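Re: the request from the purification team.
They wanted to know what the chain is likely to look like in 3D before they choose a buffer screen. I agreed to run a prediction and write the result into the notebook, where they can find it.
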Amino acid sequence: MTAVAFLFSELCSGLKSRAARKGRRVHVDEPGSGAGGMLFLGWLWPLLKYGLKNKLVADDLRSSLPRPTAIYRLRTNNLDLFAADFWGGAAVHFLGAMFTRILGAATLLAQPFIINGIMSILQSNQHRSVGAWLVVSMLFNLFQVHGDQLFVQLATRVRSFLIHNVALRSFGASPPEGADWEAASGKVLVRLSQDSAAVSGAVIMSGMIVPNVLVVGVGSYVLFKYINLAFLGPLIAVVVCLFAPMLLGGPLSRSQRKLLEAAESRIQIIKNLLSEIRIIRFSNMQQTAAQLATQSRQREIDAATTFRGVLTFVVVIAFCGVALLPWLSFDYTVLFTSLSMIQIMIMPLLSILQMLPEFFSAFVSWKRIRDYVAKGTDVVKPADTKCRSNEDTDGLLLYLNKFTAGWALDSTFLNNVHLSDLLVVSGAPGCGKSSFLKSLLGEARVTGTTRMGAKHLTYCDQVPWFIPEMTIMENILFGKEFKSELYAEVVAACCLDYDFPTLPGGDETKLASNGSPLSGGQRKRVALARTLYDEAGELFLLDDILSGLDAKTRTQLAVNVFGPNGYLQKRRAAAILCCTQGKVPV
């Protein structure tokens, strides 16, 4: 077998080299995952080859099998949960995996015959061989392992497809209603984690249903041949498994939906409490916060009462059959063969009963993902959002006419805005300043005429974000070429030249994802410096960049960036500044 594995590995290596010489792409996504690699133990050959070494390195375990199996390449950014190309390939994958799993089910059915042959040898002086059954069992075990691997790969493909669609829905052209991103984050998190995992788990379990039914059916026939009417036991269990969904479907679906909604609420509450932990401690509200978290968890537990009750009922019913022992007398051959067959049938019967709630849960999760993604497909196209040339806009960088924007079809935050000259957007928190900038970036539903004279937009978000484990300079450059003059000018404009000497590593200080160890004002100014470090920028969209700064720094930054001799004036660029009322840099 090792020699066959070696020859097969070398053959695949030669095919891969020939394909590479012809300029074709060769993928090695999952070592040893091809059909030949599974059947001929290609995945085991590297271990045998390097088994005499004192240690193994990663390069030793790289397979030469050039066959991609588990990775699904997403070729489009369109929301389509029923993409024919994906589900067509997944169906072929499913049929192939199911065929190997059915062959693998024969492993269980071969065991009683092996035991029967062994008992016959022990009870008689006849020389009978059970070697053929052992070989068959070994081959079917290989098929079963291959089938398990194929279903895991298929589940990975399905989950990546669902996550891809949920991500497009969440961050695409159809934001959540009311622009409540904080509330929507909990729903997105549940769909990306629990819902997608439930659907992918159902894919894996679907590969167990058919083999288990075959094992129960064949096992019932064998038991009938050995112990007559005793086969009715597993047959009744199968019938119960068929009719149980009709009784449990409704309560389980409603309970699972309530449970997932309660989980979303709890995750959002815990997230808010953790983000405001300092304020809670300073306000001596620890007991109130703990009570709020406890109540959210209690609501989640109460919502799962029906679901867990059904699970308890299923477990009780499944184990009742164990107590029903036969009182007939058997000879040793019949006894051990029947016990072996019953033992083989117990796990498939239990798994069928236990998988019913999981299938209902997966069905509810699938509907939740389907409904969530479907909301992102009814995008309202703007009347005129095509970027025009500078001549068409009469020299204006931005022109809006009858501009209306909203997060949903029946909800708007801007109505019939006419705009040809704009400097500052000021207002109280929550009045729609950030939403206005996001609508200019195409993240909201807009109607009206939008003429963009600026060919290059640069946006600075209200919440600073940073690439972890990268220095301040690397976060400012953001992959752009380092230019010393431009870098020095941006650092000075953002008043960072006074801060760098006070830091242990200067601008080589590494940052965490939240900007630590910088203060709140320093994080704001580093994020602004990253935005300004763009020579091609013509229009800068700045969202509340002055909040969190002391009066002196705020005034100096406003002069450096927006003053007559400021950074924007020197670059002949313009900016739309959104700031809180009372902090306008005038």
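For the purification team: The radius of gyration is 33 Å.
Please add any questions underneath this entry.
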